[in-house]
Amino acid sequence: MSTLVCRDINKSYKDKEVLKGVNLTIESGKIYGLIGRNGVGKTTLLSIMTAQNPANSGSVEFDGMKVWENREALDHLCFSREINTVSTLGQNTMKVKDYFKIASVYYPKWDNNMANKLIEQFGISPKKRVNKMSKGMLSMITIAIGLASKADITILDEPVAGLDVVAREDFYRMLIEEQQATGRTFIISTHIIEEAANVFEEVIFLHNGKVLLKENTAELLDRAKHIAGLNDEVDKVCQGIKTYHEENMGRSKSVTVLLEEGQKLGDSNDVTVQPVSLQNLFVALCGREG
Amino acid sequence: MLKGFSRTLRYSTYMGTKTFLYSLLATAIYSVYFQLIEEMGNLTLILSGLKTYLPLVTMMLTMIFGMVGSVTSVPLQISFGAKRSYAAVSIACNGLVTSAESLALYIVYCAIVSNFGVSTDVSHIGTIVCLYICGIGITSLMSVLVMSFGRIAYLIAVITMCVFVGIASGILAADKGDYLAGILHGSVLMAVAAVAFIVGNGVLIAYSKRIVVKS
Questions:
Q1: Does A79 touch chain B (CB under 8 A)?
Q2: Closest CA to A119 of A136, A106, A102
Q3: Start-to-end Cα distance in chain A
Q4: Domain map (residue ranges) of chain A
Q5: What fold is seen in the domain A3-208?
Q6: Region A6-22: what's the mean pLDDT?
Q7: CA B132, CA A178: separation in Å to the nearest integer?
Q8: A77 near A4, Cβ under 8 Å?
Q9: By Cβ atoms counted within 10 A, which residue in A5, A56, A215, A262 is the most buried?
Q10: Residues B76-84: what's their mean pLDDT?
């Protein structure tokens, strides 16, 4: 059972404090969804977890081994990040097959057949150059690299950005199949929350430079409720419970609550209690009012 | 550690092979061409100049492409999970590969054209080998310094490399007893080397920083 542990990670860019004492444990055999608003530090955290970016303080360990400049630990990790095609030099002038060739040098468990099969499935020629690709195609390459790396812990940074709905569905299916077949761990950072909610076994909300929550998705959604009704009735039902994302509509209002263990809503027949989607829960917890 | 180095060397060799094959093909074609022209007695002044300098330009271009490719590959290697120190060392590995390639090109050229303009005897090739080994050493040192200390080391490295190339080319030409050609040789190559290393290392620094600050 491999684990990746982040301890008290702090990271600043000049005066901007991006990560503030992040503690996180990634257990093996799960698909994690990392969710956070733009600029909250998701990519920074993921790059620190894979030693691609130094933290100001704190440590990252894979199975008890420090990850920073440790080849033994890095061999088990893959961070397939967005390909930046702004530059016309280096990696961007490569053909897909060359890109895979280089990946095969660095990932000890690299599965070339799988990589070729995936791009064939996506309809990308191995002779196509990276700088000639659309955003969707670049996403497909990052997905192919992530899956074919066969790394124990594979991190995909916004892998569905630019993909159409069919390709996204294909990706989720491939991801689940691969995870079930191999028991690998995946961390997926995404903004397209709703359709990926069923894929994530656990979700991690990153907010204000900290891990706001890390929890089993089903259990989390079970705790989350959307309550609507007359102001007084809603207040009565939610007495003693922290509410989020309050919306007033004259004499009526709606709130979102996240029940703690053992906590129960008050009795009232004049309110409607509905389940909350992961996206709406995220908006409630991490939106402006959150 | 050996595994890490073997990866970077494999990477460098893989990346350098294509450049080398193109350069080798170009060298072989123009060497045969110049040889034929000379045997037909049609070697004009311009062609004569090209015959002298083209091999050196090819060697330099092979080095430049190899090095620029190498420095721009550092973020890619790191993103694939390479240790930063090994990614830096890969620049030196690439220096080794491209230097060997340049030398091979020179030998190919000498084999085809007997009168290269600089002497082609065994002792001279030995001198070139020694100079290239020095070049590899300086390149290695430079890459480590740049990765460790940034811009100041970069400036020192550029100056060192220019001086080295100037001296090297001067020695080559002076070996013929033609000191004026030596100075000319040295000046041209110093300028080329300076541009190559300013561009190469500038890109290295820019990329290294970009990958660190990207969020």
A1: yes
A2: A136
A3: 35
A4: 3-208, 220-286
A5: Rossmann fold (3.40.50)
A6: 92
A7: 49
A8: yes
A9: A5
A10: 77
pLDDT band at A249 (very low <50, low <70, confident <90, very high): confident
pLDDT band, residue A91 (cuts 50/70/90) = low
B14 vs A101: CB contact, 8 Å cut-off?
yes
Judging contacts by C-beta atoms under 8 Å, the chain B residues touching residue A105 are: 7, 10-11, 14, 80
Please count the other Cβ atoms lying within 10 Å of the Cβ belonging to residue A76: 21
Check if B83 contacts A (Cβ < 8 Å). yes
Check residue B117 and give left, alpha or beta (phi > 0: left; psi -120 to 50: alpha). Answer: left
Q: For residue B200, which residues of chain A lie inside 8 Å, CB to CB?
A: none
Alpha-carbon span B90 to B78, nearest angstrom: 11
CB contact under 8 A, B76 and A13: no
CA distance B91 to A47: 23
Residue A207 is classified by DSSP as E
The answer to whether A284 and A256 have CB atoms below 8 angstroms apart is yes
A50: pLDDT confidence band, cut at 50, 70 and 90?
A: very high
For residues A255-280, one letter each, b for 16 or more C-beta atoms within 10 angstroms of the residue's C-beta and e for the rest, the string is: bbbbeeeeeebeebeebeeeebebbb
Q: What is the dihedral of CA A112, A115, A120, A124, to 10 degrees?
A: -120
- Tokens 């004569």 belong to residue: B48
List residues bridging with A22 in a β-sheet. A9
**Cα separation, B118 vs B59, whole angstroms:** 15
Residue A175 to residue A152: CA distance in whole angstroms: 14
B121 burial (CB, 10 Å; 0-12 / 13-18 / 19+) is exposed
Task: Work out the minimum CA distance from B131 to partner chain A, whole angstroms.
Answer: 28
Reported ipTM exceeds the 0.85 cut: no
